[in-house]
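Suppose you are handed a protein chain with no further information: no name, no annotation, nothing but its sequence. What can you learn? This example shows the usual starting point.
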Amino acid sequence: MPTYDPIVEAYMPNLENLKKQAKLILRWHREQHYPVAAQIRGLMPRFSKMPDAEILAANFKLSDAQEMVARQHGFDGWQALKAGVSATSRGANLSPSKATIVCAEPQLLVTDIKISCEFFQQKLGFSLVFIYGDPPYYAQVRRGAARLNLRCVEGLVIESTVRAREELLSVSMTVATADEIKLLFLEFQSAGVTFHQTLKKQPWGAKNFIVKDPDGNLLLFAGPAS
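A reasonable first move is to predict its three-dimensional structure. Written in structure tokens, the prediction is:
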């Protein structure tokens, strides 16, 4: 089941697509699709303490689905989202000649969902969007516009020494300024994060560092050097 991410204002979807997203969420709820219950719980405060079965049995209207879409795109409510779409459309008079990909959700393979979620929340400052399964085998975490899907597997797919030697990155995330990349590095350092590479200025005009998660996944964080 797809999810919809917060995106930069320049790439705001049109209102008709957002309405379709809300109707699709409503249909999933009516058809008792359990994965949508986890998303509803993660985004809608009034459902935050309910188990999946209660969420799917609860009264869930189109206005609730619209609020959920708004929250997925970083707005407090549907009216605020509509205003954001309107403001964006006024600045874009031409339709794009090609479809634009506005977001991506990297999938990290992990051996313990709970341990991985704790790492991203406690060490890297991410928030939990949802966790699914009994026992849990799938989850999503987010920080800012970045969303990472965590998928539980029985064993490591790539041998850790090979990953480290070849610097096989699992995901790259960026910040906007040189100050922010330094602040992020210091934040992670204070949290006791394990670094594969500390903050470093690169010849191509960027500063970056690489974090190692509990499963050895290498997470690159980058920003401008100045």
